[in-house]
């Protein structure tokens, strides 16, 4: 009998709540607050905080911090608005800090 393999998931480092799919990674070359970060097109089981303008390495953006919906562990942020034309592709996307997520069973 063949073993079915589901999607490759990323989980919260604290409680293992599923927060992202490997197939939704756009880039692994981002910088977060604590080091390397991944840009995801989608996220799940998260809470989006209050929007605020923040000066990041690539300029001014409106962002909202994201945290795990189960344990409130801070995980990264969501890009709500990019002010530079070259950064518009980030709008609506999510940054997960690499140190805050773990691969789930793969």
Automatic annotation (TrEMBL):
Keywords: Metal-binding, Zinc
UniProt GO molecular function: metal ion binding
Statement: the UniProt record of this protein carries the keyword Ribonucleoprotein: no
Residue span, Yippee domain: 8-105
Annotated TM spans: none
Stored PANTHER family: PROTEIN YIPPEE-LIKE CG15309-RELATED
Family (UniProt): Belongs to the yippee family.
Descriptive protein name: Protein yippee-like
């Amino acid at each position: 009998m063949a073993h079915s393999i589901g999607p490759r998931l990323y989980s919260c480092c604290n409680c293992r709540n599923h927060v992202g799919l490997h197939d939704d990674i756009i880039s692994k070359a981002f910088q977060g607050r604590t080091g390397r970060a991944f840009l995801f097109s989608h996220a799940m089981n998260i809470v989006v905080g209050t929007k605020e303008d923040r000066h990041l390495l690539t300029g001014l953006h409106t962002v909202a911090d994201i945290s795990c919906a189960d344990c409130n562990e801070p995980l990264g942020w969501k890009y709500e608005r990019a002010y530079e034309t070259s950064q518009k592709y980030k709008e609506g996307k999510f940054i997960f800090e690499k140190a805050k997520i773990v691969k789930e069973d793969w």
